[in-house]
Amino acid sequence: MGIISLVKKNDFERIPTQWEQDVAEIYVNERQIIRPDTNIKKVLITILLFILATSVVIWFVYYVFTTFSIFEYSSSKLRNFLNMHPVFSILIISSIVFLIELFFCFKYAVIGAIKLYQRYAPEEIRRRCLFMPTCSEYTIMAVSKYGAVIGLFKSYNRLVYRCRGNIYQIDYP
């Protein structure tokens, strides 16, 4: 099942009932704007800690690879290349560690970025959304439910194909 099949074409074309429009309109017009308890200082500290932890993990993995001669089990061409260019071995290990960490942390980075948006975006911009839940709330729910890649894809489809006109709608991931 591909990512495209997760979003049905008729989902984009469905006209909401009058009851759905009324409920969504009341929600949109009378909801309290929630500002998450986050700030740029917390985000910068988190990013610096992530970089520090990544550096420590990279150093440890490189130390283990060189101590136990793990590169000796690779092909002779690769082994000779890495012996002549030790910087590339560090870059390879760094890339692998970064991709693994990104795989586990990307979801939290996306949610953190959306919470920063919710914290600092002006109220006029935050009130433009005609959906229940709002687009930023929807993205947090979709990323939490489906993971970062599929959740962002579903949010992109909602923003591009459904956020048009002046019809209030209820749409959960």
Unreliable sequence segments: 1-10
Average pLDDT confidence is 80
Tally of DSSP β-strands = 2
Question: What is the rounded Rg?
Answer: 23 Å
Describe, in plain words, how this protein is organized in 3D.
The protein is mostly helical and 173 residues long. The protein has helices at residues 9-13, 18-30, 40-67, 76-84, 86-120, 123-126, 135-146, 148-162; strands at residues 131-132, 169-170. Strands 1-2 form a two-stranded parallel ribbon. The chain is elongated, with a radius of gyration of 23 Å.
Task: Give a short overview.
This protein is mostly helical and 173 residues long. The protein is 70% helix and 2% strand.
Tags for this model:
173 residues; mainly alpha; two-stranded parallel sheet
Write the layout of secondary structure elements.
Layout: H1 9-13, H2 18-30, H3 40-67, H4 76-84, H5 86-120, H6 123-126, E1 131-132, H7 135-146, H8 148-162, E2 169-170
Parallel strand pairs: 1-2
Helix pairs in contact: 3-5, 4-5, 5-7, 7-8
